[in-house]
Amino acid sequence: MPTQEPGRAKARPLPYQPVAWTEISGSTATIRYGNQGSVPMPFQTFAYHVNSIRQTVVPPGVTAEERFQISGSYDFAVHAPNGFLAEAAGSADTAALTATAAIGGTTSTPTFVVTVRNSGSSAVTVEVSGGSRATVDAGATHDFTAPLDDGWYDLTLTVSGNTNWRRHFAGHLENGSSSTTAQ
Question: Which domain of life is it from (predicted)?
């Protein structure tokens, strides 16, 4: 089987700037999509818990959503061009915890921020890939800014003491300049 050459390669700027996240309310999961790029963005959403796949194309500068019925646990993965991935898994016991994603900063120095909102009645500790953690009090929010490596980000959030809730975001933030591929 062929193997990937080691190291990085030069990458040209692309017209893509996708964002997506999952919101849970009762027995409905809403996948929210945003396209801050300059061309239509195709998203593929895999709902593993019900063995379903949906294709959603979002025009430039527009947001869209898809709704899925859930009962008990859920497991979604949203894919888009250039390595974009937004995963969400959880169950009824974590419905009070929401993670929304946004692209902030400026055109030349974009940032990827995930805001965790705890609408529950007790504090939760959110653990971040790389070893950091933050307590999100009941009724509060906390912003997690993804570290970037030449525009590439890979951020996973989990809840301490709960193996069901997980959010994973990965991709590349375009700034109009050449960059390199991910390692």
Answer: Bacteria
